[in-house]
Write a structure and sequence with these properties.
The complex is a heterodimer of chains A (444) and B (1058).
Chain A (H helix, E strand, L loop, with lengths): L1 H13 L4 E7 L5 E6 L4 H6 L2 E4 L13 E6 L5 E2 L9 E9 L10 H14 L3 E14 L23 H15 L4 E6 L5 E6 L2 E2 H22 L1 E4 L15 E7 L2 E2 L12 H21 L5 H5 L8 E2 L1 E3 L6 E3 L12 E3 L8 H18 L16 H7 L2 E2 L4 H9 L2 H7 L1 H19 L4 H8 L3
Parallel strand pairs in A: 1-6, 15-16
Antiparallel strand pairs in A: 1-2, 3-4, 4-6, 5-6, 7-9, 7-10, 7-11, 7-12, 8-9, 12-13, 12-17, 14-18, 16-17
Helix pairs in contact in A: 3-8, 4-5, 5-8, 6-8, 6-10, 8-11, 10-12, 11-12
Chain B lengths: L3 H13 L5 H8 L2 H7 L7 H5 L6 H22 L10 H11 L12 H15 L3 H9 L4 H5 L9 H11 L27 H25 L3 H30 L7 E7 L1 H4 L9 E9 L5 H20 L10 E2 L12 E2 L1 H10 L3 H7 L3 E5 L1 H18 L5 H14 L17 H15 L11 H10 L5 H25 L10 H10 L6 H25 L18 H10 L5 H12 L4 H19 L3 H15 L3 H9 L1 H13 L1 H9 L10 H4 L4 H14 L3 H25 L4 H31 L8 E7 L1 H4 L9 E9 L5 H20 L9 E2 L12 E3 H9 L14 E5 L1 H15 L7 H17 L18 H15 L11 H10 L5 H25 L14 H10 L7 H24 L4
Helix pairs in contact in B: 1-2, 3-5, 5-6, 5-7, 5-8, 7-11, 10-11, 10-12, 11-12, 12-14, 12-21, 15-17, 16-17, 18-19, 19-20, 19-23, 20-21, 21-23, 22-23, 23-26, 24-25, 25-27, 26-27, 26-29, 27-29, 27-30, 30-33, 32-33, 32-34, 33-34, 34-36, 40-41, 40-44, 41-42, 42-43, 42-44, 43-44
The chains are: A alpha+beta (444), B mainly alpha (1058).
């Protein structure tokens, strides 16, 4: 730890870094940044930097505004788009209360607590996200979005803008120590997918915050516009963030059991059972905007129903094909989370749900091999397959009575989140949409 | 064959020597090998006499028999075939025989005194340590070491080192000794003997030296006096072993790792030169490149040396391992590199190290390897250790340490722990280290790394009392001597008192306690543990008293700066102010001062356990000023330990109680007796009121006494809440009962006054009155600051003039109000009659008929909700009863309530939620009107009462919790929901009480709000018996409890929205 601080100070000196940005995330998953000069770094490590928390969404109550941000030296990295010399670096911060205790309102702290709980049981939680996003032509006309190409899934697009874009994003990420597994053109026009290599959930969440920034920066540089909006185009697939989960006990993958069905251990089955059992409760966080539900209920392969399957691309939880001999690659994929979620909170809750399944020894229902979308309502009811919430409002109602969500987020974040999202729903409900005008104005 | 005539005497002797299995011992005495060596054993054979030196005579005898067997077998084997390396068995047999010769056989004319010593050495080792006896039997040549009377302690460390190096053929005069180099014919490339063999040799030499030390130790009559020398000898031996191990490690590398200079720094007990027989040896490594070598190469070579060194000492081999070499105290602990350069060490400690790491450095000492480098390391570190303590966390760290000493985390097997348990070795070490930490930064003279030396230095420098320091030193020596003997038994690393009676007996004898063996040992051990605890207090707190207050010249007094340091270290925020109080409390020749001098030191520690030590001390001083030398006060403080401790706790935790006690110091006597802290029943209070009124001749005196009674009971309940585990609802009942009794008393006085004005005799009043309690008072749920919500009802005496009756009743009611609220030396009880019909616009008193008529006119049943809390508390019982009968059909309507009423009640509640909440208060934090708070639970219970009260008798209660329980029992809600609601109601109620107790303030806007200030939260947490500094937990716990209650309440009260 302390060696890390030393390393940071030395690097800052050697690379002649002129600014260090301290990053943290508000309750909604928005990145916040405050820049300090290298001279202040040492005291930042020791005492942290004081700031007014009341101005940050959900961080604190108005009357106890003083908060402290203390950088985590293990997250130190130079920002490649700011140049190699006399550059800018960043670190993620831990948010502390004035008396120096980790703040319960810090979403990074929420995930840390959840992971501490897992490690008490001997587990480490690894995640591997597949991030989808759209690239549009600049300037953006909000009424009519123009994707930069017309490619489809895995298409090799002749116009190389997308290629270049992905290549530059990947180069930057790699230079910041974030490994990329995979990247390709997605199903929608102008839609891309980049998969980050698996890492423990806290690192992954940090990486995702960095990833979003990098994508935005590269887009700016290349004169295109990038968006992580879950469903920007009504007739095209939405942007999700399918995430692969695995639990490790030391070096051993706890989901792996040779010879079991899909090589999936009892722990793995209980983890899935936990996810399914609590899926509806955590949806308001994994899919936090009104727009998120346009993706969730947008048909095609969207995971609208609570069920699981082996390689079933319509199920909420998918158990990917097992690669023989790779015991450590055993994992499960949760497909509801979208790109606009606060990754810290989303991973904290999915982890808590899975652990609950293990703790309580939930039974895993039968796997679903059908395409759930093609079933009738009655068939689904007969199979015991329940839907996820249809919109933000019902997601919030379910979340409100969830003990699991409250316990995991902590009372403060829980309350703030509900309040903020209710306000969003109220505002949304009062809108008159172009769709309504088009449909109704003339005929009525 | 044993001669039967002799057997009895031999057996008798054996038994007298303490042998427990005489039959077996007797058989051993006829062992042929034994007889071959020592001659036939008759009753006068010196062997039997020698057994007296054995702590365990059975073991001693068995071991000597086995040794003889081993000697005879060895002699027979080597007979004729002279082999160079084999021990001289014949010679050994002769020596042994020479020492324990049968009578008449002692041809040798050695000085008998020496012989006695030799016998003593052999038998105290053989009769105590199973492991060492085995060692001698395995290597009989070690017998020479037992016969050699040169003491094993006080040997020059250089000599110990040289012997050890020679054992591995290394040259002790070389700056870099390498194993095998001094062997004849050895070349640097081919030492001829494997390093494994050298490892075995080193271990044998180590054990030989241990044997010599143990023999000196066990044969001593004064084990406690020689203890420091034993511990130092063991540390020197460990250093020498490390040196030899390093020489072996060098031999393992081709170039002898000459690129690296390495110094081994001893930490912990090794560093403090106070090691015990078996324990981990804590070290840190410093490596520098030798001249002309690269730093990277040197570091790699040094790392290899360090890890080989650990293996040579600690890995299994032909000879048993010595101990584990533990390098975990190095910078960055186990994550950090094993070796570092000096500069890297310095940089680490300058920049990153935590206070405890510096504390560890306190003991750093060069023990092996490069001398110059080791010295350079210590020279660099020393100034840093003490500069470092001034860092920001000093106070927190010192406090944490104090708490560790005083509160103790209970280790496993706490009862048997010699080291970690309460009053164990660790306590002594911490006490000394804590004092060093507090004062060492200003005073260089107390920085010794050895516990005993540091303790003596602290006394010399005047930081602790001489006598106390000496007593603590004795405790330490005693515990260490026990620990050593426990470890010697099997040469196992243990710090546990044995449990088997036989083992305890052996241990006692090894400690020189022969007469009452185990009893004496266990008794002294218990006393020692107790003493360590009380000496901690004496050492730490006593010197805080000013010089003028000291009882004897032996006691120490701290200079003001040093005293301030010490107070600050344990959490006093204003040490200078605290010192003034201490001075005022302890100076003078009065009896009070004398007793406070005794008591204050330990009370200073108790105040520091509360949330506000300074406030506690100040309150104590005020109390003392006020009580002066009141006899009972001094006696109580002096004689009752628990009373003083409780007093310290309440004074530093509750401003409310501190204030109450200063007004009525007699309350302190309650702390001595739990019965006095029990809440008084209403009957008892009424009887007392009755006595007051019978006695009183003047109404103003009478009401003063009545109000004093209420104040006293409130103080009692507050103390009970802090000191015992009564439930908050019990406290509420008590507070309400006190209000009931007070009201009753006031009513009687008011009648008396009204009669006097009118010249009426008792019994001829024109009207009778009853007081009906409403609201929280009706529900027996009052807090410390609650008003008395009441209504007055009267009844015209038959034949009296109605107008006169009404006027009389009104006057009495007004007088009651005046009596209870007018300014007076005793606290008022606000009387609030706003819940009467028509509220403030209605008449203050009404006749029974008027109530009947008013309630009869009601159209809206929901108005009767307030009546659910109505309870007659004073005045005419018969009238009160009739009033209850009048309102029962209203508040428990026979046909429940209709949908319209239900809707109205829900609407009113919803409006109250949005409108009554004070501006700026977050709904979740308001303890009364907030989300899931008190009023949520109350409204729900009241709704059930209106709906089902007529049907479910249990619901006919004015108390919320009783109503809740009745609703649950009647199946109106699930057990789980009821529990959720109960928990929230109780938590919110106890938080309100805690707010009053902590701040001492009653009422005000803040009284109903969960504070967000963290000091406040911490303080409230302390009242609610959370550990110190748990602000976040208090907050999080309440918010969670209330949220759950709100979820339940919403469903049950507002119904499902669908």
């Amino acid at each position: 730890m302390d060696r890390q601080q030393e390393f940071v100070l030395r690097t800052v000196e050697e690379r002649d870094v002129r600014f260090v940005r301290l990053w943290f995330t508000d309750v909604l998953g928005m990145l916040k940044s405050v820049a300090i000069a290298p001279a202040e770094l040492e005291s930042a490590f020791e005492e942290g930097i004081g700031f007014d928390g009341s101005a940050i969404e959900g961080l604190t109550r108005v009357y106890e505004a003083d908060m402290i941000a203390r950088p985590d030296p293990t997250t130190f990295s130079l920002l490649p788009w700011r140049g190699e010399t006399q550059g800018t670096a960043r670190m993620f911060c831990e948010i502390l209360t004035p008396d120096g205790v980790p703040s319960l309102a810090d979403s990074r702290n929420v995930l840390k607590r959840a992971m501490d709980k897992a490690s008490e049981k001997g587990f480490t939680f690894y995640t591997h996200p597949e991030v989808e996003f759209y690239l549009f032509e600049q300037p953006v006309d909000e009424g009519r979005l123009v994707p930069i190409d017309h490619g489809g899934y895995f298409d090799h697009v002749a116009r190389p803008a997308g290629h270049d874009f992905r290549r530059q994003v990947i180069t930057m990420l790699e230079s910041m120590g974030i490994s990329v597994e995979f990247s390709h053109h997605e199903a929608g026009p102008g839609q891309n997918e980049i998969d980050l290599r698996y890492a423990d959930a806290l690192n992954t969440a940090d990486n995702l915050m960095t990833f979003r920034t990098v994508v935005k920066e590269v887009a700016l540089e290349q004169g295109v516009f990038a968006s992580f909006m879950p469903k920007p185009l009504a007739d095209q697939p939405g942007s999700g963030m399918h995430t692969h989960f695995s639990l490790f006990e030391g070096d051993r993958n706890a989901f792996y059991e040779p010879g079991a069905q899909y090589e999936l251990s009892k722990t793995g089955r209980q983890f899935i059972a936990g996810l399914l059992h609590h899926a509806a409760e955590i949806t308001a966080v994994t899919n936090q905007y009104v727009n998120s539900y346009k993706r969730l209920w947008g048909g095609a392969e969207a995971p609208s129903y609570v069920c699981w399957g082996h390689n079933n691309r319509s199920a909420l939880v998918r158990v990917p094909m097992y690669k023989p001999g790779k015991s450590n690659s055993s994992r499960i994929e949760y497909r509801a989370i979208d790109t606009a979620a606060n990754p810290y909170l989303a991973y904290a809750l999915t982890l808590a749900a899975g652990l609950k399944g293990i703790e309580e020894g939930y039974d895993l229902p039968e796997a679903t091999e059908d395409d759930v979308w093609s079933l009738t309502d009655a068939e689904r009811r007969a199979l015991g397959i329940k839907p996820l919430p249809q919109n933000l409002d019902s997601a919030l109602n379910i979340m409100e009575s969830s003990e699991l969500v409250a316990e995991t987020l902590g009372e403060h974040v829980f309350e703030y989140f509900l309040k903020n999202k209710r306000a969003e729903w109220d505002e949304y409900r009062s809108q008159v949409t172009p769709y309504e005008i088009k449909r109704l104005l003339q005929v009525l | 064959m044993i001669d039967p005539s002799r057997t009895t005497t031999v057996t008798g002797r054996l038994i007298r020597m303490g042998v427990s299995n005489a039959a077996r011992a007797e058989k051993l005495c006829s062992d042929p090998d034994l007889i071959q060596v020592l001659g036939p054993i008759d009753s006068v054979h010196p062997l039997l006499e020698a057994l007296t030196f054995c702590a365990d005579p059975d073991l001693g005898l068995l071991s000597i028999v086995r040794l003889c067997g081993s000697l005879v077998a060895g002699r027979d084997e080597t007979d004729g075939a002279e082999r160079g390396s084999a021990p001289d068995y014949k010679g050994l047999i002769a020596s042994l025989r020479g020492v324990i010769a049968p009578v008449g056989d002692s041809s040798e004319s050695e000085a008998t005194e020496d012989r006695d010593q030799q016998i003593r050495r052999i038998f105290s080792v053989f009769g105590q340590s199973v492991a060492l006896a085995d060692e001698v039997i395995r290597h009989p040549e070690l017998l020479n070491d037992l016969l050699d009377l040169t003491p094993g302690i006080g040997v020059d460390a250089k000599l110990v080192r040289a012997r050890m190096l020679k054992a591995v053929d290394a040259d002790p005069t070389e700056p870099v000794p390498v194993a095998g180099m001094t062997r004849e014919g050895a070349t640097p490339d081919n030492p001829g003997i494997s390093t494994d063999e050298y490892t075995s040799r080193m271990r044998r030499e180590y054990r030989r030296t241990i044997l010599r030390i143990a023999a000196t130790d066990l044969a001593s009559n004064e084990p406690l006096s020689i203890l420091p020398a034993i511990a130092a000898a063991l540390a020197d031996l460990a250093s020498a072993a490390l040196e030899a191990a390093l020489a072996i490690a060098r031999a393992k590398q081709d170039d002898h790792a000459l690129s690296a200079r390495i110094a081994v720094i001893g930490m912990g007990k090794t560093g403090g030169r106070e090691l015990n027989y078996i324990s981990d040896v804590d070290v840190i490594y410093v490596v520098e490149p030798a001249e002309g070598h690269d730093e990277d190469v040197a570091l790699a070579a040094g790392t290899q040396l360090a890890s080989d060194l650990a293996l040579v000492c600690g890995s299994p081999g032909d000879e048993p391992a010595l101990w584990a070499v533990d390098a975990a105290l190095r910078p960055e602990g186990k994550q950090g590199p094993l070796v570092r350069t000096l500069a890297s060490h310095v940089q680490y400690y300058e920049r990153w190290a935590k206070t405890w790491e510096f504390q560890a450095l306190l003991k750093a000492r060069h023990v092996a390897g490069d001398v110059e480098l080791g010295r350079a390391y210590v020279d660099k570190m020393n100034p840093m250790v003490w500069a470092a303590v001034t860092r920001e966390n000093f106070v927190e760290d010192a406090q944490a340490m104090r708490r560790r000493v005083e509160n103790h985390v209970k280790p496993a097997e706490a009862e048997r722990q010699i080291k970690l348990g309460k009053g164990g070795l660790r306590d002594v070490e911490f006490t000394v280290q804590l004092l060093q930490l507090v004062h060492g930064r200003l005073d260089e003279s107390i920085r010794s790394s050895s516990t005993l030396t540091a303790l003596a230095d602290l006394a010399t420098a005047g930081y602790v009392g001489r006598e106390h320091a000496a007593e603590l030193a004795v405790c330490y020596r005693f515990l260490r001597a026990i620990e050593h003997r426990v470890q010697l038994r099997q040469l196992h690393r243990t710090h546990l008192m044995p449990t088997a009676p036989h083992e305890i007996e052996v241990l006692a004898r090894a400690m020189g306690m022969r007469r009452n063996g185990s009893e004496e040992l266990m008794g002294r051990w218990r006393t020692t543990k107790r003493e360590v605890r009380s000496l901690h207090e004496a050492l730490f707190y006593r010197p805080l008293l000013p010089a003028t207050a000291q009882l004897s010249a032996e006691e120490a007094t701290l200079a003001p700066e040093a005293a301030a340091e010490r107070l600050k270290a344990i959490g006093y925020r204003d040490p200078v102010g605290a010192l003034k109080h201490i001075k005022a409390l302890s100076e003078g020749v009065s009896r009070r001062a004398a007793i406070q001098r005794q008591l204050l030191p330990v009370m200073l520690g108790w105040f520091a356990d509360g949330a506000a030590p300074d406030a506690g001390l100040l309150a104590f001083r005020r109390l003392s000023d006020k009580l002066g030398s009141t006899h009972w006060y001094l006696k109580l403080l002096r004689d009752s330990g628990s009373a003083a401790q409780r007093l310290a706790f309440v004074l530093s935790t509750s401003a409310y109680v501190a204030d109450a006690i200063s007004q009525s110091p007699l309350s302190i006597t309650w702390f001595d007796d739990d019965a006095d802290l029990a809440i008084r029943s209403i009957d008892r209070l009424n009887a007392e009121i009755d006595a007051i009124l019978t006695r009183a001749d003047d109404p103003s005196n009478a009401i003063t006494s009545v109000r004093a009674l209420r104040r006293r009971e409130l103080a009692r309940i507050a103390c009970a809440e802090l000191l015992t585990d009564i439930a908050p609802q019990d406290a509420a009942h008590g507070i309400s009962d006190a209000a009931d009794a007070t009201l009753g008393g006031a009513l009687r006085i008011a009648h008396h006054e009204a009669r006097k004005v009118r010249g009426l005799a008792e019994g001829s009043e024109p009207s009778q009155l009853a007081i009906i309690a409403m609201g929280r008072m009706g529900g027996r749920e009052m807090g410390y600051g609650s008003d008395a919500d009441v209504m007055f009802v009267y009844e015209i005496t038959e034949g009296a003039d109605p107008a006169e009756a009404g006027a009389y009743a009104l006057e009495v009611a007004r007088t009651v109000r005046r009596l209870l609220t007018e300014t007076n030396e005793e606290p008022p009880l606000a009387v609030d009659a706003d819940l009467r019909p028509e509220g403030r616009n209605g008449p203050l008193v009404r006749s029974f008929e008027s109530y009947a008529e008013y309630y009869g006119r009601w159209s809206e049943a929901w108005e009767s909700q307030a009546l659910l809390r109505a309870r007659p508390v004073a005045g005419s019982e018969e009238l009160g009863q009739r009033f209850v009968e009048l309102i029962n059909p209203l508040r428990y309507p026979a046909d429940s309530i209709d949908a319209n009423t239900l809707r109205t009640i829900r609407k009113v509640k919803a409006r109250v939620e949005s409108e009554r909440l004070p501006r700026g208060v977050t709904p979740t934090r308001h303890l009364k009107l907030g989300r899931g708070a008190i009023s949520d639970v109350e409204w729900l219970v009241q709704l059930f009462q209106l709906q089902h009260g007529a049907r479910v008798e249990g619901l006919q209660t004015t108390e919320t919790l009783a109503g809740l329980e009745a609703a649950r029992a009647a199946g109106l809600m699930t057990d789980r929901d009821a529990e959720t609601l109960r928990a929230a109601w109780v938590f919110a109620s106890s938080l309100r009480d805690a707010l009053v107790l902590w701040t001492g303030r009653i009422g005000g806007a803040a009284a109903d709000v969960l504070p967000s200030d963290r000091t406040m939260l911490s303080g409230i947490g302390r009242v609610l018996k959370y550990p110190v500094g748990e602000a976040s937990a208090v907050e999080e716990d309440y918010l969670r409890t209330a949220r759950r209650a709100r979820n339940v309440m919403e469903t049950l009260f507002y119904g499902d929205p669908e």
